[in-house]
Amino acid sequence: SCDSHKTYIDVTVSLSLSDFWQIPLHKKIAEKDLAIESLATLTMILDIIEFTKKAYYQCLYQEEQYETIVAILEHTKKLQTLIKDKNTKNNYLNGYTNDFITTQYTLIESQLLEQKQKLDNAYLNLRSTIYTHISHEPIKLTTPLNNIIKKLDNLDELIDYAKNNAPETHIARLTIQKARNQQSLEKRKILNNVSCGLSYSRDTDGSFLIGPQISMDLPIFNNNQAEIIHAKWLEKEAENNLNTIELELEAKIKELYYTINSLNTIISHYEATIAPHIKKIIEHNTNIKDTELDPISLIQSQMFLYEQKKIYHQKKLTLAENIINLEKLIAKNI
What we know:
With 334 residues, the chain is mainly alpha-helical.
């Protein structure tokens, strides 16, 4: 302040002390937010990997199904030719039997056309998943669907690994830490504006005063109590969420674990005992010259054997998809 003759000066240089205990907590909270966003991005990447693998195995499966139907058609054609040759010699066929064989062959041709459409769509889906040129053209797949059987680690080890490494559990733990940091911050905001510094003042009569200064707000009521209670509630909610995630992880891993082991057993049994016999019977049927079986039974038995092969392919696809689901849950390749 001033008049026409004298001047009053008051200068204070101060430093906010409250920043020393608030800024580090703000930094920790920001670090937790950044880590949570990074893990959310990782989850999206794992989703893309899952979709890509499943699209790839779907292509393999549809290829196997297509090849199986092609084989059915070829073998049915051979049987048709053999039976007609036999009929020429022995008057073996009646009208109904001939119509049945022709109809069966035509139905298989229709199945082949339908399967070709499924295969084209599988190629299209894989291309769109990996964001490449959209086309129905075949893709050269280098990894076959064979040898899909996987020996799994101990169940408890898989569950522990998932709980320690799955992005969902990391996010839940970071959320708990963030809530605790928020609690500490709100508690320290009770003394929100604390500063110290150097003060210089000169009065109108020329006298002056210089010395240290400290200032702070002393609230009569704790205005941050509501924020502290809210932060505690967020911590409790995050802890409950972590428990829920871990329980769900454990349940899903157990279900997939037993399903995969069961499919491993079924596929191994098929490959060791059923597949060799089916191959021999098919070869026998297509090379047969004389048979006591009537033509309808012969073709029906042939169709039944190929249907078993198609079921086998479906089992392999289901096993592959379950392994992919398990890999995503535990956040590592098996």
